[in-house]
Amino acid sequence: MRKDPGVSGDAQRIEQLGWMISLKILDDKDKEIEMMNEKYVSPIPKELQWRNWAADDEGITGDELQEFIDAKLMPQLKNLDLSSGNKRTLIIHDIFSGTNNYMKNGTVIRQVINQLNQIDFNSSEDRHLFGDIYETILRDLQSAGNYGEFYTPRALTEFITEMINPRLGEKVLDPACGTGGFLTSAIENIRKQDVKSVEDLSRLESDIHGMELKPLPFMLCVTNLILHDIEVPNVDYIDSLNCEYTSILQKDRVDIILTNPPFGASVADRVEMNFPQNFRTTESADLFLVLMIRYLNDGGRAGIVLPDGSLTGEGVKQRIRQHLLETCNLHTIVRLPNSVFQPYASVATNLLFFEKGKPTKEIWYWGHKLPEGVKAYSKTKPIQKREFEGLREWWNNRAENEQAWKVSIDTVVANNYNLDIKNPHIIEEEQSYSSVEIISMLQNSLKESDEVLKKLRVELNG
User: Fold this and answer.
1) Are 383 and 153 in contact (CB under 8 A)?
2) Share of the chain above pLDDT 70, in %
3) pLDDT tens, 144-154?
């Protein structure tokens, strides 16, 4: 792809590869369904099916291929007839409505297509091998411009999912699913424990639900789920915050929420007006927390990633935390080092685990340590699943230690529902500061500097 003059940077290469892989996988799946059901008709028009324009390595190339993709393939897939209400048709339409063909050299396009033709997505061996390659592609998003927000390190998605432990028959939701890391972790967790038949697989497919606002991660998520044997992924191409809070009724509620909502960004114009006045804010992470509480059934469980900024602060932030603690049992907060999401973001983050239906009585905290000899996580040294072994062993047999401490709800309430509570076993000099604390310290320092400058001016003018 680097030979093609139309593709600039890793993000565009990933998007280009994404729609090509999606179309190849969809056609391979169509072939599989056709073998089992002779009445099945693919929602992709015959002329646009991968098998009929791309599968022949000696097929159309050069300007003819370029013209076909730009003048026929893309426009027609963007404008598929949705009147049948077919979910598979809607997914294909949504994938291509936000997708572009960046490549300008038909000969290079043919070379890329021929590489993809070597993969048979109906072969479990090929699919699993490609699944590992695809995970690497998704991980590369972390350093591809601003796309890092859509990828959560696999170590985190797998650990959170294991602790929440979704089972067959429980409805699972990720309202900000990005490239589908939490959804695929839930699928694997349920599959290895509960899926014994075709009926079980069908039930699993219907119970896994994602929502994603941006076109590139939506496309990558759908492809990711198909690679995990989900025939028709239940992923909606929508902004989950852009619906009336009161419109979420019992029929919409779920048993499990696993998510890493976007944080540090403002929501779209007037989206906060969908929420009760008490909870209106333009900070996306805080609105997602309110939304998640609304979506959970009583007894429902959630494992989520939140920034330090959501654990502290006054006004609406405090009211949202109070709502969480009064309606849910927030039993565990895992405090992560600042560098988990580098290079995309260096903000300090936390893993919150809670259950809806009972108020919080006490909160256990666990301070996650960097591995010995590692000063910060990076692209070449990401967080690893094995680092959670100590936490996993402690989880069901809790006691205070140098990494674990317990705080009563009375202490939290007395402190204005502040959840940014430091490890009491670490002396101040060794304590790392959160991003919120650093900003506060900087503000205080600047105020003091202003005071000194004012005094100097007075003396100089005097």
Assistant:
1) yes
2) 93
3) 555 545 578 88
Token pair, residue 71, equals: 């003048």
Q: Is 408 helix (H, G, I), strand (E, B) or coil?
A: strand
Spatial distance between the Cα atoms of 337 and 346, rounded to a whole number of angstroms? 9
Q: Among 272, 140, 160, 126, which Cα is nearest to 216's?
A: 140
CB 275 within 8 A of CB 290: yes
Question: How confident is the model at residue 345, as a pLDDT?
Answer: 59
More confident residue, 224 or 147: 224
CB 436 within 8 A of CB 308: yes
DSSP state letters, 195-247: --SHHHHHHHHHHEEEE--SHHHHHHHHHHHHHTT-SS--EE-S-TTSS-GGG
CA–CA separation, 347 and 306 (whole Å)? 10
Q: Which helix (H) or strand (E) holds 350?
A: strand 349-356
Q: Per the structure block, which two tokens stand in for 54? A: 């791309």
Q: Angle at which helices 124-140 and 215-227 pack, to 10 degrees?
A: 150
pLDDT band at 268 (very low <50, low <70, confident <90, very high): confident
pLDDT band for position 429 (cuts 50, 70, 90): very low
Phi, psi (degrees; rounded to nearest 5) at 385: -60, -35
- Is CATH 3.40.30.10 correct for 134-437? no
pLDDT tens digits, residue range 282-326? 888 999 999 999 999 999 999 999 988 899 999 999 999 999 999
Q: Which CATH superfamily is domain 9-122 in?
A: N6 adenine-specific DNA methyltransferase, N-terminal domain (1.20.1260.30)
